[in-house]
Amino acid sequence: MKTGIGAIFVILAIFTAVMCVSAAEKGIALPKYIGLDACRTCHSTAKIGGSEFAKYQTDPHKDAYKTLLNEQSMKIAGEKGIADPTKSGECMKCHTTAWGKKDQQSDKFKYEEGITCEGCHGPGEKYKSMNIMKDLQQAVANGLIIPGERQCVACHNPESPTYKKFDFKTFWAKIKHGKDVEKKVN
Q1: Fewer CB atoms inside 10 Å of the end CB: C or N, the chain?
Q2: Would you say the pTM of this structure is higher than 0.85?
Q3: Same domain, yes or no: 23 and 42
Q4: Cβ-proximal residues to 100 (8 Å cutoff; 6+ apart), any chain
Q5: 123: how many CB neighbours lie within 10 A of its CB?
Q6: Which residues, in sequence order, are CB contacts of 10 under 8 Å at separation 6+?
């Protein structure tokens, strides 16, 4: 049986939704997305947390939301019957962080920031403190995601109307930042 990548994402989305509903039913508060400024505080200088934020400033993910406002995006949206791509889940799920997760967004969170640190590393509320971030294992235990190909192909896949062949190793080399944490966690 051949399973398409789209079917895999549907299964993952259903699993995630079930897990979130289960957490809500049990009274477990899901961690909040705290916004870009919270990450910038520590990740702007090599002395404190690294210069990851400088790398983010040159990354196309930063402008993912703004991309929806350009002429080409408006044309693509129109062809798909979407009047405003900034209000469509079909577009926003890949051009913003935490689309559809209003209950997990802090008052400092903004869609207009595009794909932020939390888009790849998960909601930062529970791992943001310096005491937790100093210990990678503890940060991961508190929700920090060490991203890899799985996170990337959630959006960089043939379902995107502007999809171009995605080679993880090539694109990872362009956006990789910070310390080589993959080896430390695994």
Answers
A1: N
A2: no
A3: no
A4: 89, 93
A5: 24
A6: none
